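SEQUENCE AND FOLD
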Amino acid sequence: MVQLTEVVDEHFQEGQAGPEDEDDGDYTDTDSEISDDSDYDPENETFGERLYALRDIVPPQTRGYIAGKFNTATSAVKSVLSFSGKTLWVISSSALLLGVPWALAWAEEQQVLEMEKEMKMREMGGEILTGGNPNGGSSTAQQVGAALGGEAKPAL
């Protein structure tokens, strides 16, 4: 059977080399040097500073996980905003380059149609005023209706 015996090392029984007894007067405990003269004022501390001071409570793995999720969300928001801005730029520049000339051409076409309609009305008015009876004895209402392309209907 095995029997255990304790062997004492002579090195641990000797005294340590260090300061002499006369140097003990210079030695002070670090706890005794803490004073109340600090410029820390809890009233002036912001909420952000308090949260930042609590960072050591959260384990490093959890902090890394939270930071990773925050960075991912921030990146996604930046990407969406960038894509939205580029899309808005394409739509607005396309509207200016294509829509404005088309709107001007359409307005001009409407103006030409109105001018043609006004010319027809002037021709018709001139025939009525001069007494020219192109339909051979028809009334003025019938002439106006014929010029407009249909029968004259009484107003309600």
Observations:
- Residues 60-130 form the longest helix (71 residues).
- Helices lie at 10-13, 47-53, 60-130, 140-148.
